[in-house]
Inverse folding.
């Protein structure tokens, strides 16, 4: 099991199993999310980061509990995580 570790543009440090981004279930969730299914959008976070990772991301996005967590901020973070994985693979090719 290869663990991917990285940091988003805003400084959130994350890790996940590399195989997750190639899992069919994630692909189905992403398709549902693109069709404006908010439940699928939330499930994507848990699928990639797990429960503890999502809690850490929420804490990061709320700036230590001082602010509300916005959908936009969370979405930007997960996109950054997915894009970081793609960029890392492209630079290794």
């Amino acid at each position: 099991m290869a663990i991917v570790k990285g940091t988003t543009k805003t400084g959130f440090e994350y890790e996940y199993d590399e195989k997750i981004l190639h899992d069919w279930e994630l692909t189905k969730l992403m398709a549902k999310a693109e069709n404006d299914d908010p439940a699928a959008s939330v499930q994507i976070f848990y699928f990639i980061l797990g429960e503890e990772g999502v809690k850490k991301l929420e804490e990061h996005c709320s700036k230590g509990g001082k602010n509300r967590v916005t959908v936009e901020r969370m979405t930007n973070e997960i996109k950054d995580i997915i894009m970081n994985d793609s960029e890392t693979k492209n630079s290794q090719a």
The chain has one domain: 3-89.
